[in-house]
Amino acid sequence: MSQTAISTTDLTRCFGDLTAVDHLNLEVPAASIFGFLGPNGSGKSTTIRMLCGLLTPTAGSAVVMGMDVREDPEAVKRRIGYMTQQFSLYEDLSVLENLQFMADIYRLNRRQCKERIDAVLYRFQLHDKTSQLAGTLSGGQRQRLALSAVTLHEPDLLFLDEPTSGLDPVGCREIKDLILNLKARGKTVILSSHL
């Protein structure tokens, strides 16, 4: 793995006359935790969406895990995990069904699917919730399920957009501990927060 997970040069994104991200230059070392801190509307989510290959930069460049996001956004998407600000899994599916669905999206074979689902269920303390509908989980449990889903394909780089938003202090601490555990396992974690 490269020593640099992310490198940007004058990364810019405009929406009409509004400049949401203005000539951002940064370098994020691999196996680190890097945070975007700022108020709502300061361009954190826009930056993350560009780095994930979901939004094309207006100007500048970004290299993520050695790949140019403008030239090969699909390759970038396969190498990362992205947890959005809003819960984006299916509320009417169980915890296990959501993870099986994500395993299908990541094209995990049957053996990988079982092994990895079992691993994330225990890592994120959801092994006793497999049959519970996602819509009935607490806020902290939903965040742990979302983290389980985005780590299922074992990406080296994770983008977590406001991962503790709406959680109580205990839930925030649990998520922070999980993030520290991911870093200890050699993952690079990019997170955003307005706190």
**What Rg do the Cα atoms give?**
17 Å
Structural class comes to alpha/beta
| SSE ordering | EEEHEEHEHHHEHE
- Report low-confidence residues grouped into runs of 5 or more: none
Strand order of the largest sheet: 2-1-4-5
For the report, how would you describe the main beta sheet?
A: 4 strands, antiparallel
What's the layout of helices and strands?
Layout: E1 4-15, E2 18-29, E3 33-37, H1 44-51, E4 59-64, E5 67-68, H2 73-79, E6 80-83, H3 95-105, H4 110-123, H5 139-151, E7 157-161, H6 169-184, E8 188-193
Parallel strand pairs: 3-8, 6-7, 7-8
Antiparallel strand pairs: 1-2, 1-4, 4-5
Describe this structure in words.
The protein has 195 residues and is an alpha/beta fold. Helices cover 35% and strands 27% of the residues. It has helices at residues 44-51, 73-79, 95-105, 110-123, 139-151, 169-184; strands at 4-15, 18-29, 33-37, 59-64, 67-68, 80-83, 157-161, 188-193. The strands form two sheets. It has a four-stranded antiparallel β-sheet, covered by helices on one side. Strands 3-8-7-6 form a four-stranded parallel β-sheet, with helices on both faces. β4 and β5 form a beta hairpin. α3 (95-105) runs parallel beside α5 (139-151). The longest helix is centred in the last third of the chain and has 16 residues, at 169-184. The protein is globular, with a radius of gyration of 17 Å. The two termini are 31 Å apart.
